[in-house]
Every structure is written in structure tokens, then in C-alpha cells.
Amino acid sequence: MAVYSDVDRLAPHVQVADHAVAIGPAxxxxxxxxxxxxxxxxxVSGADAVHPGYGFLSxxxxxxxxxxxxxxxxxxxxxxxxxxxxxKTEARKTVMAAGTPVVPGDNGPDGNGFPTGESALAAAxxxxxxxxxxxxxxxxxxxxxxxxxxxxxxxxxxxxxxxxQAAFGDGTVYLEKAIIQPxxxxxxxxxxxxxxxxxxxxxxxxxxxxxxxxxxEAPSPVVDAALRAKMGVAAVAAxxxxxxxxxxxxxxxxxxxxxxxxxxxNTRLQVEHPVTEMIYGLDLVSWQLDVAEGRxxxxxxAELDARRRGHAVECRIYAEDPVKFLPSPGRITHLRxxxxxxxxxxxxxxxxxEIPVHYDPMISKLxxxxxxxxxxxxxxxxxxxxxxxxxxxxxxxxxxxxxxxAQFIAGEYDTSFIGRNAAELAPRxxxxxxxxxxxxxxxxxxxxxxxxxxxxxxxxxxxxxxxxSGWRRQLR
Length: 476
Hints:
disordered C terminus, D-amino Acid Aminotransferase, Chain A, domain 1, single chain, 18 helices, alpha+beta, four-stranded antiparallel β-sheet, Rossmann fold, Dna Ligase, domain 1
């Protein structure tokens, strides 16, 4: 069964569910974030378990407690594990005790953040600049400020605290040493109720804008077998420190010298879990359900290590301005998604659907697999070239450029990749017009005679050509 807000009444998950319950207005604060409405939906539908998805209440320990009190299984870790890992300051203390390396920093005089910018300044001088002012709660880059020198620290701290309070209801801010131009590496972990915890390798999510992940791949181009094993051990140790059950992700910063540091733990299934599923040939949501039923994990660490094969890449396809990265809500008037072997498109949209202003504007997660990284990149290029959306702006053009960019192809990128290559990755002003012309030509060709379809083509300022006999788009 499913729940939905007013604006999601025609969403795909509602249409395919056996039973669906309306829970309120579009604003998440009046629907998806109201614990009692979710519990009431369980009662009226007879559901005895809740899968919390990726966002909203997925990492809310109060919701997990409320489910337990109501006799409903929360498909995820315990509320205690979420509390201990949900606060970045508490998580740092927990994993340090378990022997997992953390980014050098200071949690504040009592271990729970700094009371003022002035007190943070004194600690920052000891750590050494540059430093990060970071919110203890939440994520997604909110409540985070990079500070290069002493003069900017107090204002940055105050700004981080205000943003954290507004976003998470918690203005606690602590300090970390800034690791300049690191790789952002995730380790997928999984635990059962029998005390077994394993890891399912690494994912590289260093291609980010404003601390939001845009492209993920597994395995990382710079993580070899020895480093993967070492990071896996550190991630499992962190998970064991809180008796972790279910799917989770330990996030690390990897420096150019090969040293790595625990950043945070996401106590939920992450958006990019399909990348891991593709190289292991597993269904992690199925694992979540089995673990929630009390079943043991089906594979050992050795069996998982032997199972890993090939390379997978994921692009987050957003309804947004591809240059300014601003949301582009509206109605999808035309949609054609790629298909074929080893291409997976996880989507909550369809032709005619409205992209609302109320939630994350992601259209889909486009994932491909290849026998190796070059083949995966080639397959993703083909899939992106076949992806067609009209009615709203998308970041498809950005992705197409990224997968043809020399540094990305070579695997030589870090968290500053988009910023350093902004001019090269930004689509031309006329690419949206070109895209519209291509799609119109394809649609027209679909109703034309076979002879006319075989020779049809579109030319735009001499820059691009689409031969509709193969319906392939080539940007040169």
C-alpha cells in the first residue's frame, strides 16, 4: 500500500499500489512529515510494516520509536542507532571509539557544538585553516560553510547556525579541518538482527554541485582492492559500534595521498543504491524486507567480494535549469526514456505528469552497467542521447557534456570537478532549441513513410546532426 499527498494523487507509485491512502496537502510538513498520519494510514490499511524510502522520515528516530510503540515494524535501523549516527558530533565520537578514522576537528567545549562564533574561532586557530563550520544535524550541504581565514570565521559560523536552525530545527555547529579537493567515497553496509554486518563495496559520488550528488559510479576509479577492503573494514566497525541493522552508508573523504576519513553515516537506503545493485546483481530492498522479517543475511563477506563484477554509473536526471541548477517545475509534454540491455531507469514520472514545486525535482535515476568503466561510459552516452524530455528544462545536456569531458573519462575528478569545469560543462544557449528541434523531427519521422524516415535529418547551425534512420543524436 502507499501514501500520497494531494499533489501526488496521480503519481506512479499511487497508480500501481494495491491500496493508497491520502495523507494531506502538498506541503510535506502537513503530509509526509506528520508521523501520526503515516501511522493512521497503517491502521486503516492493515499494514504491519513501513518502508520509509530515502527522505522525509527515513532517518527520523522519533518515527521509528512511534512505529515500534504502535506495533508496526520500521524497515530500517533502530531508533538508538539513528540517534547516535544522526548527530554528526555524536557519530564522530562513536566511530572514533571504534577505531574508524575521522576528519580532524573539534566538537566544541562539551562535545555538542560551539556556543558562539568567538569560541569557534579559538578552536579553528588550533585546527588550522581552512576549516568547515558544519551543522551537527541534517545534511545536503545545509548549515555548512568553508572558511579560509580567521577574519571570516565568526560570520560564517553565525550563517551556518542560522541555516541549520531553519532547516533542521537544530542550530548546533561544530568544526572540521577542510580536506581540499578530496574524493567523496561511500561504503554500502548491511546488518541483520543476528549480529552480522557486511559491506558491499564502494561508490564514488565526487561529482557534486552545492554538496548535492549528481553522478555516482561503482567502483571508484581510484579505489583498488586493498583500499576497498580497508575502507570496508572501517565502515563495518562504525556500523557495529551502534549494532546497526538494515541498509546504511558510511561516507568518507579520500585525500590524494590515499588517507581516508569518516564523514557521516546515512542510516537509510540511499538514492544511489542501484549502482551497487548493478555490480553485485542483488536487490537491496528485498534484503531490507528479509532483515526486517528477522532473516539472516543471505551472503557472507567473502561471497559478496567474489560476486562483484563490472562497472556501473548513475546520473540523477533533474527537472532543472542545466546552467543555473535551479528547479524547473511544470508539465512533461513529451517523454522517451532509454532502454536496452544493462540500462535501468528508476523514475516517478511519466508523459503528462506534473513536476511540483514542493519536493526534490528529480525525474529519474538513470543507471547503466558495463563489463568495465569505458564500456559503462559508452553505454551511458548512448542512453543519455536517447533520453527525451519536453515541457520542462532538465540537466540532460549537462550529463551529456560530462560523459564526454576528458578528465571525467580519465577518472581524474574530485569534489571540485563541476566548479573547476563549469564553462566546459555548461550547455550552449542554443542547445535547448536544438533539443526541441531533434525531438520534433523524431516525432514527425514516427508518422512519416519508411522512405522519408530513412533519410530524415536535422541540422542546427552546422553544429549537430541527427540521422533519424538510427534515431541517434550526436553532439560534436
